[in-house]
Each structure stands twice: as structure tokens, then as C-alpha cells.
Write a structure and sequence with these properties.
- With about 270 residues, this protein is of the alpha+beta class.
- It has two domains: about 130 residues, 2-Layer Sandwich (Beta Polymerase, domain 2); about 120 residues, no CATH class.
- The protein is built from eight helices and nine strands.
- The strands form two sheets. Strands 2, 3, 4, 5, 6, 7 and 8 form a seven-stranded mixed β-sheet that branches. Strands 1-9 form a two-stranded parallel ribbon.
Length: about 270
């Protein structure tokens, strides 16, 4: 039986590391001329010189190493035709596409846009972006083109955080969502192989996640708590099978399973 999770690179996720990462992101934000306001948990950050205020805002966000940092960003544009995807905006604030493990994007006209992300070093942000045009009218900035894989891996990080905080209901729910995404990939592969999406009968297919679940032993599922161990195996099987299937479908896909395990090892 294979064993996974025993020999991984070490991510040192401390409060001090998270604070320095957070300050670096703030600096990049303040460098953008269109930024009008930065607020964290109701605390407005006037500039990088206000160290006491920055620390207070960060402390209000920090609960444990599974915490994300909520940053509310006000943007006032000086031109009408501003539009980009969220990756371009993130690059402007020092977060390159290759540094993103997972990301989700949502929006509505009243509350603006929300980019939720986890970096490959395990730092997590919720960026709430409210933009107005030259007339002071609220607008949506992003012509977004994030992909389903980014969303999958963001949910995977959420599931892991819930598992570590012992919320077994939500972590199990999210793990099952991830398994469904892998099953969708297998169905797409079957459709391509059979050249049809109509299947009156099945073919006794092997389920990729179940092969991992039955054949591999994760170092993260060796605790005295059987519920934790079961969800760990479920989550491990979901992410490993999804990563493999995604690469089989598209060789340009960036595999992220090992990076995810590094974060898990840091959390464990």
C-alpha cells in the first residue's frame, strides 16, 4: 500500500510570516494610483506609515493559521474604459498567477466583486473590491476568466481548513463536492472516448477517487479520531484523483497536488 504525506517540503506558516505577507500586499495596493480606500474588519488603513493601525487590523483578522485576511478595497477610476481579468489585477498587487493555488470569484452590482484566494505558500485573502467610475457610479472591474480548476483548489483549501477546525459537517460536504468534480472529469473523458454523451448503459467504470481511497494510505489519516480519518481519506482521494485526471485531459494543466499536501502538512 502506498503512503503519502510523510516526506514533504516544509511551509512555515506562522503569525509573523502571515503579517509580513500581509504588509507586502498592502504596500503593492498603496502603490496603485486608483486605490481610494483600504479597510480591514472595519479599520481603515490610511497609509503604510500607520504601523499600529495595521497591526490592530491584522490581529482582528487572525484567529489561527487557517485564517484568511479580509481586505476591502475602494477604487476610483480616472477613465471610463477600465477592464481587466482578476489575474491581471492580482499581478498588480504582487500576486502572480503561478503563486495562486486556488481562487474563486463572485460579483454583484450592489456589493462589488470578491476574489478569494489561497497562495501556494498557504497565505489566504478575501479581497472585496468596490469600484466607481468617473461619475461616482458603482461598476464591475473584471472581465473575469478564472478556470474551474482554480475554483476546485480553493474549495479544497476551504475543506481542509474546516477539517482542521473540526467542522466535520462542512468539511465532509465540501469533500463530496470535490469528488463530484472528479466524476464530471471522468464523464467528460468517457464522452470523448465513446464520441457521444448519451449512454443508455454504463461500462462498469472504475472510479478514480475510489481507487485512491482503497489503495493509498495518507499520513494525515492516522489519528485516534475515526471521523477525522475518514474525511481526510475522502479529501485526499478527491484532490489526488482530480489532479491526475485534469492533467490527462490537458497536459498544460498545472498540477497542484504536491503543493496542497505541503499546506496540509503545515496545518497538521
Amino acid at each position: 500500500m502506498a503512503h503519502a504525506g510523510d516526506n514533504l517540503m516544509h511551509i512555515d506558516l506562522t503569525k509573523e510570516f502571515m503579517y509580513m505577507e500581509f504588509k507586502s500586499t498592502l504596500q503593492s495596493l498603496f502603490n496603485l494610483p486608483e486605490i481610494e480606500k483600504i479597510e480591514i474588519k472595519g479599520i481603515q488603513i490610511p497609509s503604510l506609515r500607520n504601523e499600529d493601525i495595521i497591526k490592530k487590523a491584522f490581529d482582528k483578522s487572525f484567529h489561527d493559521k487557517y485564517s484568511d485576511v479580509d481586505i476591502q478595497i475602494g477604487i476610483k477610476l480616472d477613465k471610463e474604459d477600465y477592464s481587466c481579468d482578476s489575474y491581471t489585477f492580482l499581478k498588480k498587487i504582487g500576486i502572480k498567477k503561478e503563486d495562486i493555488l486556488g481562487m474563486s470569484y463572485s460579483h454583484n452590482q450592489d456589493n462589488g466583486e470578491v476574489i478569494r484566494l489561497c497562495k501556494t505558500n498557504s497565505m489566504r485573502y478575501d479581497l472585496i473590491i468596490n469600484a466607481v467610475n468617473t461619475k461616482g457610479e458603482p461598476i464591475l472591474l473584471f472581465n473575469n476568466n478564472y478556470n474551474k480548476a482554480d475554483n476546485f483548489w480553493f474549495i479544497a483549501v476551504q475543506a481542509l481548513g474546516k477539517l482542521m477546525r473540526k467542522d466535520y459537517l462542512i468539511s465532509s460536504h465540501l469533500a463530496h463536492m470535490l469528488i463530484q468534480e472528479g466524476l464530471v472529469l471522468q464523464m467528460e473523458m468517457r464522452d470523448k472516448e465513446k464520441n457521444t454523451n448519451i449512454h443508455r448503459y454504463g461500462y462498469e467504470e472504475e472510479l478514480e477517487y475510489l481507487k485512491v481511497f482503497n489503495d493509498e494510505d495518507s499520513a494525515f489519516a492516522r489519528t485516534p479520531n475515526e471521523t477525522y480519518n475518514y474525511i481526510s481519506k475522502l479529501l485526499y482521494s478527491a484532490v489526488k484523483s482530480y489532479d491526475r485526471l485534469s492533467y490527462l485531459i490537458d497536459n498544460s494543466y498545472k498540477q497542484r497536488f504536491e503543493n496542497y499536501l505541503e499546506i496540509w502538512a503545515c496545518y497538521f
